[in-house]
Amino acid sequence: MSSRPRFLLNYAIAALTIWSVSYLPAQAKLLSGHIEQIKEVETPQQEDPNTKSVSNSFPENYIGVWHCQTLVTDSQVDTVVKGTSLACDIQFVPDKTGKVTGQWIQPGWVETQISTLSWNPQEAKVDRTSYYFGQSMVQGGSWACRSRDHFIQLSETKMECQSYIDQYIDGRYLGRYRTKSVLTRATANQVISTTSAF
Prior knowledge:
Mean pLDDT: 75
Number of strands: 9
Strand order of the largest sheet: 1-5-6-7-8-9-2-3-4
Largest sheet: 9 strands, antiparallel
Radius of gyration: 23 Å
Strand content: 35-45%
Helix content: 10-25%
Shape: globular
CATH topology of the domain at 52-185: Lipocalin
CATH architecture of the domain at 52-185: Beta Barrel
Distance between the termini: 62 Å
């Protein structure tokens, strides 16, 4: 190819590049990095103007024991298969300051960090980190999960929760899986379950 056609081709490519950058919308978002480094944005439902959000507390409506049936809806983790189901109990109790805390009853798992935000009497979001010290998991490392949960109370006795969980072993990221849970309020004479977790 002669120098003139090559020059024209390079000029056309440069002009096209400048034109496409110049006309990108101002609000266009460019993403970079690994998928596990991109923070997911979840928009809560519209807040009630008469209700303000409360940090580090679940809604008072949640107080009590709830049976939780969880289904894995998507998974990028080899040890957590899509379609796997799990049952556990969650107990919501008020602390000395009046804030409502959540206690996941899953043998082998220990909650180490938890932050909660509720913005109306039915909804709350939770960011929690747990470590596994039981015997039923795959051996050979220290297992940890970071879970982001969105609870919505549908009635006095029913609640749903959508979650995504990042799985780690020895501090190494293994991938993410998603779950959907249905919670039903336990009656006073029902016993808290002892089902193990993922």
